[in-house]
Design brief:
Elements lengths: L1 H27 L1 H13 L3 H30 L7 H11 L1 H25 L4 H27 L4 H14 L1 H20 L4 H4 L1 H20 L1
Helix pairs in contact: 1-3, 1-10, 2-3, 3-4, 3-5, 3-6, 3-10, 5-6, 6-7, 8-10
Organism: Gracilibacillus salinarum
Protein name: DUF624 domain-containing protein
Pfam families: DUF624 (PF04854)
């Protein structure tokens, strides 16, 4: 009886944590969220796209780093007196590294998006190549967040190790890609309530869990 209640409490506690940190992630990324909502309502235009590209390194990347850092603490069973205070602390602590890396990665994502838009429709092979490269770039970005949350490294080492891990462990890359694609597909095409409460935190939780299991295996 007590064991069953303990498991139930543990599950509900994790659900509450994931929901709260996902909402915090969206709130700290609010300018981008607002621009995306405007784009959905009014359609894609150059002004909105430019706003997203310019603001993403300074808004989404620090918020995502804080998201991964909070989840990392939970997986390592480290106490947090307040999710909000922990999120703010990690947001501020890693802001500079997040922004610098965000500028570079946003530039790469922008180049990929332009090439995909103009070239992928020309033939199926190009479409496949761009999709594969997009997934690799996505996993690289995820690995960067995991490493920034877990290690005390300079940026050059973080970029290098994230690159080596992405290309050097193809199974890890495929698993994280599949998990993320499934969560995004279900969130967008079926369970829309996941988007404000669980989509980002679920991807971060599962991705960091996979990364951390790999890390424990090789230390």
């Amino acid at each position: 009886m007590h064991q069953g209640l303990g498991k139930f409490y543990g599950v509900t506690d994790w659900i509450a944590r994931l929901a709260v940190v996902n909402v915090l992630w969206l709130l700290f990324s609010f300018p981008i969220v607002l621009l995306l909502l405007n784009m959905i309502v009014t359609g894609v235009n150059a002004v909105l796209l430019a706003g997203i590209i310019i603001l993403t390194p300074f808004v989404v990347f620090p918020a995502s780093t804080a998201l991964f850092a909070c989840i990392r603490d939970w997986i390592l069973d480290r106490d947090q007196h307040s999710i909000f205070s922990s999120f703010c602390r990690y947001y501020v602590r890693n802001y500079r590294k997040s922004c610098i890396s965000g500028i570079l990665l946003t530039a790469v994502w922008t180049i990929w998006g332009i090439d995909y838009y103009y070239l992928s429709s020309r033939n199926v092979m190009l479409l496949f190549v761009f999709l594969v490269f997009g997934l690799i770039l996505f996993v690289y970005t995820i690995h960067f967040f995991s490493m920034l949350a877990h290690f005390e490294m300079n940026l050059r080492m973080l970029w290098k190790n994230a690159f080596l891990l992405t290309l050097g462990r193809p199974l890890l890359t495929v698993v994280i890609s599949l998990v993320s694609v499934v969560i995004l597909y279900v969130s967008i095409n079926g369970l829309l309530f996941l988007l404000p409460f669980f989509t980002g935190s679920l991807i971060a939780f599962l991705s960091f869990s996979i990364f951390y299991r790999w890390y424990l295996h090789f230390i």
